[in-house]
Fold:
Amino acid sequence: MKNLTLGLGRRFLVSRKRVGFVSWSAVMAMLGVAVGCFAVLAAIAVLNGFTNELEERVSGFESDLRIANVSLDQNLQAKIKSAAVSIPEIEDASFYLERKGIVIRDDNRQLVTLKAVESDKLGSVYRPFMESELGRPLEKSGVVMGTELAARLQVRPGDRLRLVSPTSGQLALGFPTWGDVEVQGVFRTGIPIFDDRVCFIPMEMGKQLFRAGTSVDGVDFLLREGSTAKIAEDKISALLPEELTLTSWREQHGILFSAMELEKLVGTIVLSLIIIVASFGIASTLIMLIMEKVREIGILRAMGATRRKVARIFAFQGIMIGGIGAVFGMITGITLIFAQMKWGFLKLPETIYLVSAVPMALSLGDVVILISVSGAIISLASVYPARVASRLSLTEAVRFEK
Structure:
């Protein structure tokens, strides 16, 4: 009986009687579902690609783990160094000073965040995308800044400018500390809060500007490839005083990545409306098919077919229409995504987007979610027409034909 149900469902769908538009309506419904699934899959892949690109740039600029907003004296620094050496997941560590400062170039002044780091750590613990290679370690009178800040100041590597620390202790006497530096490199992350607001300076210059003495403001940890941040965080926390709190780069920029996840969710929901609209086409196709096959439904009921069997026949037709469209759309989408990942034929202006081609990434979970959502929509679209068909009686069928 199951094979009979499937066979009748296929035959009812492809056969033509008086309402010949049914077949074309089914084709249009299939194409609608296909376009919807393709659009959702492509949008998810693009959003995943840009999210991965952003994560790579943020993780390269920031450290994997950080102890921040504290004053670390020499004793705490020694404990942290000892803990870092004893934990195999940690590859390197860098102490830093971070304060607000002013960059002056002629009459141009910009408020920035000055981050003083150990000179040999720029390029290892901190790995920003450099527009111009350093060529040599960060020197005592050197500074590395973002492209947007360099454009505002109209400077390039080799130019000199002045750094002023308005928060240093000498300000009360009317003389803020300052220092002349040379632009040693320019980085570009594509993230305005970095490119327009952050400058790297050597630790020696930072201590001179900030009057910090031997204390530092925090420490950044670089993890080994393949290490799990949570495991490393637990091990470090177990060896350090409780007042020292560790955060990851993802936690430091949690609002940004939460916004991107929300954007992905909203985009998926909006594009899923294409599948919902196409599902109305499936329902209308089935209704027209029922109108065409009223007599056949009556004959089936007279031969002993139950209401449930009749409902299954038309439900199978709706699922077949939507299923073919969904499969076609997903195969096309997956093919395009993997082709783009391999060859990158969809180009982007690199000066604007920092990537030469549209980044795409797809996970098995995304495909499973799309299959589940589209399957649920298609099934719901088939329920009402199937119930209508199952409620037709033999008497109604005969009266309709007359």
Observations:
- The mean pLDDT is 84.
